[in-house]
Amino acid sequence: MDPIGISAIALSILSPNITKNEINKVAYKTTLTIIIAFFVVIISGEFVLKVFGIDVNSLKVMGGLVLLLMAISMINGSSGLISNSDGKPNEELAIIPIAIPIVFGTGLFSTIIIFKHEANNIADLASISIAYCLNAVIFYFIFKNSIHIKRYLGETGQNVITKLMGLIVGALSIQFIISGVVTLAKSYLN
What we know:
Blueprint: H1 3-13, H2 20-52, H3 56-75, H4 92-103, H5 106-118, H6 122-144, H7 146-189
Helix pairs in contact: 1-4, 1-6, 1-7, 2-4, 2-5, 2-6, 3-7
């Protein structure tokens, strides 16, 4: 989780005149969603992949493509695949796209499944859960106060950060795609 980077992305999606009270609600709803998503994945993530016969690397490739589209959109000056230009209440954007897939995307999904595989006992699972929840709380406080960053930076600063984050998200997306494709190719060629 990258709370500072995600806050910049989220602020570019939310309406430009969002109030402190609205951002508090969005931060709360987003954090609650990612905590619920964590427990759903840790309990049933492997099962879902097995049922559909999906390799984790396929998730990496698809997630990389989605992130690449968002990155291109951010670099071109729009706020991502989804914006608040249609007048949606900011709270509606808290779950999709902010919580899922921006905060809780394929990378986090894959990481949770990998950590679960490495867990040897219930104590290991408990420590993974506690660590994730602590990260979620840190994310909540940073995201909740991100409106101050937006006010400090102004419109130009926010545009610069959005374009820089677009470059970073684009680089991450390419890394996801390459990693997933290379691993899938190796497994199918052997």
